[in-house]
Amino acid sequence: MTTTDSPPAPVAPVRRRRSSGDTERGFSRTFRWITTGAGALILATLAAVALFLIMRAWPAMTASEAELAAAVPRYPDDTSFIAYVGPLVFGTLLAAVLALLLATPVAMGIALFISHYAPRRLAQILGYLVDLLAAIPSVVYGLWGVAVLAPMLSPVWLWLNEWFGWFPLFAGDVSPTARTLATVAVVLAVMILPIITAVSREVFLQTPKLHEEAALALGATRWEMVRTAVLPFGRSGVISAAMLGLGRALGETMAVLMILSPGFLYSFKILQAAQQQTIAAYIALDFPEASGLAVNALIATGLALFVITLAVNMAARAIVARRKEFSGAN
Amino acid sequence: MSADTSTMDATERTRALLTTAEPRRRRTDRIMAVLIWGAFLLAMVPLVSLLWTVLFTGAGRISIDFLTFSMRGIFGGDPSGGIYHAVTGTLIITGCATLISVPIGILVAIYLVEYGRGPLARAVTFFVDVMTGIPSIVAGLFAVALFTIFFGPGARFGLIGAVALSVLMIPVVVRSCEEMLKLVPNELREAAYALGVPKWLTIVRIVLRTAVAGLTTSVLLAVARVIGETAPLLVAVGVTDSINFDPSEGRMMTLPVFIYRQYSQGLATCREGQANCVADIALQNAWGAALTLIAIVMLLNIAGRLVNRWFAPKTR
To answer: GO MF terms on file (chain B) (predicted)?
Structure first.
């Protein structure tokens, strides 16, 4: 009897759910469109950044050499716009690549330390400590670089110049204040350590446990296990981490602006003052006082920086994304 | 008996052979372990040195006056100026940036986690990652280029800086909020659907409610990330010595820009016997402001971690 009584009861709730609860009825659809719109806004923002930079850079890119020379301070005579941006791009790349060369081995060491060497319990806290390096504002790095690091590194640069002066990077007259690209590269290296470490750490931690245990079971020492199981597995991850670090170093402004004594040469002498300048620092130095065509010229150099970093970052992210699909981890 | 000892010896020998590597390999292992520990210690050197320097150089300048006075009408080596205008400017501009970024960032994260399928979602994921790498100065230039279209060249006010910071902040918020939303167990969503709750209400009342601690942490860490940005504000907001509470009108000072300006002022010239003149006051101001800025950043970081620890839903 109870079974025949129960069927009529659920009718009312079913009808009510029909009217209000269907997942694509009423506000649910609106909500989906709102969130999708927010997603599309990200793409629109990136497109807008590119568009507005191009729009504002265009007058400078199409102006004649004479007009540019008249409007832009420190514009070399009789040169095209490309020749004006050239040394800046060179300085930016040189500083970033040097920083990357200094930072990558150390960052890989730290990542391995946290993933495989440090005591388990401490690993997370030590990871926070490295992340703290990323929390410090770049302007404070600049202050510290000038006040503490430069005097500390000065004797090192003198020594390098004395013994390795034949090597093009270390040639020239050593700047007594050490406010040179070499010091800048060290500061940039410290600043990009956390991002390279964070990405490589994640990759190293994903190494299949079975690979590691297999290596150990075959009698490998811990380092041999790392070399044969962890490093080959993490190679593409480390490459993309390094490229992300490169992207950061390319765009870093304040530390360079405060430490480097700038010049506009295609020069490899990183121990000598007044040789190179980076795009970001150049913009920050001149933008507050610029007007008219000079603003357009500065935005054009900014566009160059944007294109370079965008290319580096997209390449790095593409490697990471491809790795996710094909790695043996999942 | 003798046979027994010899097999013992053999076992021991085999064990020794198997458990100890040959000296060369053992040496390599040791060296690499030392190098890897060394890499970590090497990275701690700048961290400790920097924090130590900022703490001990900056602490001498911190006082009530320093925190509550602005630099209006302060010239030369006059030590009576302060950073009040810069602190308020930083808080206002970062606050505006947060108001812009957080709703957008959380909505994008919801889109990616709850709805994201197909090419648009893949494109959004990819370009959010790419956006995290936009140089800060380019974000500043973008904001200036955007606003000069409406307000003409030379427009400098707080909101421009807030927009520039938002460009930097949105991808950070999206990335970390996405991770937090992914942590919400699917069973909760399914239980809500089974009870007939519409999807949007499930997201707002169940998913966001569960993840609220993680989302707060994400937002606090994102704020800590952009509060120290200098270059975009230098380009977009300009500098001033006075207090300005209005982000839609006039230049504003911020702490990072203040540090840079004071640093680039260098030494003041003091006449012999001049009262009320400290030659390196600008540098002292810079260090004092740096200590304040780092204190704010660290507080935000610690608050973020504590919120996550204390208010995270108890999961078994």
So the answer is: phosphate transmembrane transporter activity
pLDDT of residue B306: 86
Residues 35-64 of B with CB under 8 A from A: 35-40, 42-44, 46-47, 49-50, 53-54, 57
Spatial separation of the C-alpha atoms in residues B145 and B147, rounded to whole Å: 6
Best residue in B141, B167, B189 for a mutation probing chain A (most A CBs within 10 Å): B141
The answer on pLDDT for A324 being more than 90 is no
What the block records as the tokens of B226 is 């952009």
> What distance lies between CA B29 and its chain's CA centroid?
37
At residue B253, the pLDDT reads 87
DSSP state letters, B196-230: T--HHHIIIIIIHHHTHHHHHHHHHHHHHHHHT--
Q: What residue of A is the nearest CA neighbor of B30?
A: A223
What's the CA gap between A144 and B138, in Å, rounded? 24
Joined tokens for residue B167: 């460009």
Q: Which residues contact B168 (CB under 8 A, 6 or more apart)?
A: B134, B136, B139, B225, B226, B229, B232
Nearest to B135 among A24, A288, A305 (CB): A305
Nearest to A135 among B39, B115, B297 (CB): B297
Q: What backbone phi and psi angles, to 5 degrees, belong to A12?
A: -60, -50
Residues 76-95 of A with CB under 8 A from B: none
**Rounded to 10 degrees, what is the CA torsion of A233, A234, A237, A243?**
-130
* Nearest C-alpha neighbor of A253 from the set B38, B28, B230, B124: B230
- Smallest Cβ–Cβ distance between A21 and the set B196, B259, B287 belongs to B196
Q: Name all domains of chain A by residue range, CATH numbers in brackets.
A: 63-326 (1.10.3720.10)
Q: Count CB atoms within 10 A of the CB of residue B75.
A: 9
- H/E run at residue B254: none
Share of chain A above pLDDT 70, in %: 89
User: Hey, are the CB atoms on B129 and A250 less than 8 Å from each other?
Assistant: no
The predicted-structure confidence for B183-209, as pLDDT tens digits, reads as follows: 888 888 899 989 988 888 888 888 888
User: How many Å from the N-terminal Cα to the C-terminal Cα in chain B?
Assistant: 59
- Nearest CA distance, B173 vs chain A (angstrom): 12
Q: Which helix (H) or strand (E) holds A131?
A: helix A120-135
DSSP string, A148-205: IIHHHHHHHHHHHHHHHTTSGGG-SPPPTT--SHHHHHHHHHHHHHHHHHHHHHHHHH
ipTM of the shown complex: 0.85
pLDDT for res A185 = 92
Give CA angle at A49 (A46, A55), nearest 5°.
Answer: 140
